[in-house]
Each structure stands twice: as structure tokens, then as C-alpha cells.
Structure prediction request, 786 residues.
Amino acid sequence: MEQTQPQSVHVHAPPEGFLWKYVFSLDHKVIGKQYYGLALIAVFTGMILSWLMRFHLVWPNAKIVGLDLISKSGAPGGVITPEYYLSLLTMHGTLMVFFVLTNAPFAGFGNYFLPIQIGAEDMAFPRFNMMSFWTTAAAFLVLVLAFFIPDGPPISGWTAYAPLSAVGSDAGPGLGWGQNLWAISIGLFCIGQLLGSLNFIATTLDLRTKGMTLMRMPICTWAWFITSCIGLLAFAVLLPACLLLILDRMAGTSFFIPSGLVISDRLQNHAGGSPLLWQHLFWFFGHPEVYIAILPAMGIVSHVLVTSMRKPLLSAKVIIYSMISIGFLSYMVWGHHMFVSGMNPFSSLLFSFPTLTITIPATILTLIWLGSLYGANIRITAASLFALGFVSMFVSGGVTGFFLAQPSIDIYLHATYFVVGHFHMVMGVAAIFGILSGTYFWFPKMTGRMMNETLGQLHFWFTFIGTYCIFMPFHYLGLVGNVRRYASFIDDFMPALMPVHRFVTIAALITGAAQFIFLYNLIHSRFFGKPATDNPWDGTSLEWSIPSPPPWNNFGGKHPVVYHDAHQYGVKGEKGDFIMQDSPETAAG
Amino acid sequence: MAATTVVTSPISQIADATRVSGHVEASRSGIWVGIFAIIMSFAALTSALLVRQGSGEWSHIVIPSILYANTLILLLSSVTMEMSRRALAKSAGVTAWIGITLLLGLSFVAGQYLAWRHLAAQGLYLATNPNSSFLYVFTGMHALHLLGGIAVLVYLLGRVIGGYTSLRPHLLDNTAVYWHFMGGLWLYLLFVISTRL
Ligand code: HEM
Ligand SMILES: [Cu+2]
Prediction:
């Protein structure tokens, strides 16, 4: 029977032919790269959209050559209309949150490295895995299609608040088929992520190799595992929410649309729905989603830091427990996005408490990183710089959470640039730093070639300084009352703030341009980089015990045996100051 | 590593055995994890119902009595599902029992369809009122998930017709877990539908 030959035990045969090797591949490594590639397309698209927005905010009447080719009504003569500004905003947020911050650190790196780090040959369900990616890719295409329909993309933001998102084209451009495409896309995205999360969980639970106990798993494996548990719950709620939204829009039901709503002089034929219901469902997903974005980045950063510091973190266990409690608490705080929604003020109080509680594990994590760094002789590389940058961004963006968590303060700050500053730093930039750190760190393993260090460090300094220049001023703008989701600031006191906005826009243009250094480095190194050794950073986890790039079945048909956790640094080992997880030697002394 | 001969390496045999059992375990975990996600989705829909009920224009619906007959059919199919598991252990009659389970599953879905026809005949459509909306959403989503189970049953039937040896017991076990869960979920939904709508 099949047990006697290792080959037939493998969950799938070696791939043959272009289509099966690179397109509908069952190999978790190819799928991981596909996710990463999709995220790369999404992030540059999203970035260009942000350029357009920043440009419009400070030069509202300037023509953008060629934009009218994409949307005649949205940018007549190349000048962005206020509505089209909101369309760009929606697409920017949706692309970034779903297709970048979820796809790259979790689905991308997780797919590639989780099975390897636990010593498995592949994911538990390779076919689901492949379907998961292609569903996500379909979701991306459906979303982007919205740019090319006459109506344009929706104007309701990445949170798609009802009733605006539910009533249809009466309420403005993009709310006809644009919003339909959005809802279908996000529904598909949920299905893809559910399949992915299921795979991650079953793989981690059951396919660990001999000796790989749960507590011996590297921190990033833990982070992906916890993230998949969060994702399973979160996307299982967003999916029915999308279904109800689609029904309200296309089948005439009234889940989210209240009675007597008159829009554009037309009485809407709906009755009794609850706009708050959408907010509850959305944020029940939405808050955990921010941790889906940040936890993998925390894992990657811990992994990169420990390898760069050459000594163990103060306590890997406490990091893991903190991440678990963050994951757990993230389900009790969604109402902090709804302090001014008209929800019962007592609920605000109830949501404020766990929100403030969640800052405790977050602070513990930060203290462990900082405490471990104290006195460490860190190896400075592009990867470790971005990991340090992550810690910096996480702290700077996180402290503002303490303010927002209190309803009395949030009533003033909600819907201002203060919130925009908060979440861009703590989620957007921090998670992107995690992705970039992981990219510089794992690129040699994934491609067999090194990235250019000089360009990498140059990229870091541009990005690090640039993002602070962009997002720090947002806090001050918010404090003086600069509202968010406006296409221009020509009213009231806001024209006085234009110099700050101009500064931000220039910083955004420069920082964005610096990302092309990264893109060049990525593509050039892929083909012409220095060949990489199997273990260029002297790492201990299993991915460094196999060739760069790994063969299709990871461990060449063998089964690694694990003897240690992944933090054996600063010891006297055979190969240097570290002992690999699959090496039976014990630390001398 | 211990020295071994090429053909019967004890170490690699042990390792392979854990590997195979790892995949068996993984498919079992997979089913439970999937069930967990489905529970979460229906919990979200239930809480949506409660919020929506508080929001207004709520009415009342007399649910089609055929739903109760359908319930019996679905429960019966859980029994026949267990019979097919026993039959597989004894290697006798598997085809028949899986076939019966499949037929019962299909009649349940057909019965649900009749219930929808019945509602439509009363002028109750998806968008008529929130009660009918939730009734269609609940029954429709449940039927969709059950159709997934039916697809797997068709696949399993193909495997047993192709010969017992190619049907590994854990496949049937996992399908049974899912199938019973579908029955349990339906009982819960029936309770919600009959008390809340
Ligand atoms: C230190 C703990 C944190 C606290 C106490 C906190 C608190 C808050 C609060 C109260 C809001 C609502 C503000 C408003 O809309 O008026 C908010 C918004 C937000 N937070 Fe945090 N936060 C924390 C950490 C994080 C992290 C780690 C992330 C992401 C990884 C994040 C991402 C976001 C996002 C995306 C929004 C705004 C979404 C939107 O309205 O579009 N936060 N935060
Ligand atoms: Cu939140």
C-alpha cells in the first residue's frame, strides 16, 4: 500500500507543465509567492491612488494628464471631482486593507514559510490552498473592474457604511454597479480567506514534524496560527454581512435601510432596516481585521530581531501569550469605532474598558522588544532596520490609541485626521514595515539570490523619515479639527492648514517615489542578485536548513527532527553562535 | 540515525506512518474548524435578526408546515449516515446506505424548495418583509451548505462503486460529522425560525 513509498505519501505529485507549476500550482511556496505578487500589484495601485488624492487636496484645480481616459465623468479634463475623490479613497482603503495588509504578511509569507517552519511538506489541503488564492485573485479583478465601468468605483469608503452603501445609485456616483462589485469582491475575498485560515489551522495542529512541539514553533509561526484563528471568525462574519448588503442592494430587502429615507428627492422603497446593524457586523470583523494585519508583522519582526540580535528575546513565551490575548480581546472591542454612531452611551463605556485592556498586552510586546534590544549588538541590515522601524511606528501610532479609546475624547477626535494618523502609523505603515522586513529577510530563501543591501538601507531611510513626515502632521491636523473624507479644505478655518497639507503631499510624493527603489531592487536581484547560501543570516529555524530556493517537496522527502526551540542564539554551536532547531547538539556551557 | 536497509527502513516507515496519520488528523481538524466557521456565520445572522427585530417593521409569519416533515427526513438521513459507517466497517452494504442517505438529503432540499413555493404562493417573497427575508436567508444558506455535503456524498458513492478499498474510512467519518452538524444546525434554525419569525 501507499505507506511504503515516501513519494506517494506526499500530498501531491511533483508539478509538471507551466500551467500546473506556476498558475494552478498546489505548492504552498508558489501560492505564497502568488499572494505576494498580488499584494505587490495592489500596493502600487493603492499608492498611486493616494498620490492622486494628496495631489488633489493641495492643487484641487490642477489637471492630471490622462486621468480623464480612465474616468470621463470622474475627472473631466483631468480634474478630479469631489465624488471621484471619494471613489479613489474607497479603492485605496479597500486595496490596502484587504489586498495588501491581509495578503502579504499573512497569506503570502504564511503560506510560504509556515509549512517549512514546522517541518511539513505542504499545507494540509493543497487544493483548498490553490482555490483560496484564485478566489482572492478573482476578488481583486472584480474590485478593480469598478474603475472601468461608467459609474466608477463606490464612494462609501472601505467601511461601506449603510445606508449610503445600501441604497443604490440615487445616492451618488459609484453606488450602482460600483458598490455591487465592491460587495461581491469582498464576499469572494472572505471565502478565499476562510479557506486559507482553515488550511493554516489544520496544518499547524496536525502536520508538525517530530519534536516540533507547539512551544518550539518560531514566533512567526505562532503569529500566523493566531491570525488564522482570528481570520476564521472575522471573515465568517463579514461574509454574511456582505450577503445581506447584496440582498438590500439587488433584491430589495431592508436589512440596513431605514423607513422613510428620501434620497435625491426620491422616497426609498425600503422599511425598518438598521444602519447600525451594518456597523456592528462590519466592525465585529473590522477590529479583528486590524490585528490580522499586524500580528503576522509582529511575528516576522520578532523573528528578524532575534536573528539580528544574536541573543534570545527576553521571553518568547510572554510574546506568544500576549499575542494570544490580543487575538482574544480583539473580539470585544469593535464598538470603539462606534462611539458617535448613536449607540447607547453605556455601550461606549463597556467597549472602552476592553479597548484600554488591549493596550496591556500591546505594551508588554513593545517592552519585550525594547528590553531585548537593550545592550544587544544588533547586525544592521535592511531587514533589521525595517524591524526596528516597525517597533518605532507601532509605538508612535499605538499611543494615540489610548486617547481614542476614551469616548469623551473620541467624540472630538472621531472623523478627523487624528484617526487617520493613528491607523496609518499603527496599522498601515507598521504592517508594511513588517512586510518589507520579511521581504529583505526571506528573499534569499525564496529566490536563491541576495537583495542589494545598500539600496535596501537607502530605501529604509527614505521610507522611515518619509512616513513620519506624512503621518505625524495628521495628528496635529486632527487636533485642530481637520475633518477626514473631505475632497478639499476650503471652508471655515481649514484653508489656514493648507501649508501643512502641502508639506504632507510633497513628503508623500517623495516617499512614494522611493518605493520604486525597492521595486527595482526586488526585480533586479531576482535575476542578477548575488547567489545566496542556504543560511545567509545564521538563522536557527527550519527554513534555513534546506536549500535556497527549497525543492518542491521542501525537505527532499526526508523528515526533519526538531530538538530545540528557535531561539538558540548567543551559544557555542558547531556552526557559530547558534544552534539550528534540527541539530541534536546541546548548547555548550 | 540508525543504519537501515533500503527496502524496509523502520525509521522512515514510522515517520511515514505519522505523516499519513497527520493528514488523517488534519482532515478531521479541518472539518471541525470549518464547522466552527459556519457556526460563527449563523451566529452573525442570528444577531442580525435580533438587531433587525428591534429596529422596526417587524411582522409575523406562519411557517410552512412542510418544514417539519423536512426535519424528519434530515434526521432520518443522519441515521442512515451512521448505518453507512457501520456498513463500511463490515464491508457490506455501503453503496446502499450511502445511496439512501444521498436520496434523503436530496429530498430534504426538494422539500425546502416546496416550502419556498408555498411561501411564494402566499405572496411572501424575499423582500416582502424582514421576516420573510430572514426565512429565505436562513433556509437558503442552510440548503447551500447541505448541497456541499451532498456533493461529497456523490463523490463518495462514486468511490464505493469503484471498489471498497479506495474509500478510506476517515473520509466517510468526516462527511458524517459534517452531515450530523447540518442536522443540528437545521434544528437550531428551525427553533429560531419558529420562535422569532
Ligand atoms: C494600542 C491599542 C489601540 C487602541 C486603544 C486603539 C483604539 C482605537 C480607537 C478607539 C479607534 C476609533 C477611533 C475613531 O474612529 O474615532 C481606532 C481606530 C482605528 N484603529 Fe486603533 N487602536 C489601537 C491599536 C490599533 C492597531 C494595532 C491597529 C492596526 C494594526 C489599529 C487600527 C485602527 C484602524 C484601522 C482604525 C480606524 C478605522 C477607520 O475608521 O477607518 N489600531 N483605534
Ligand atoms: Cu478597532
Summary: Chain B has five helices and no strands.
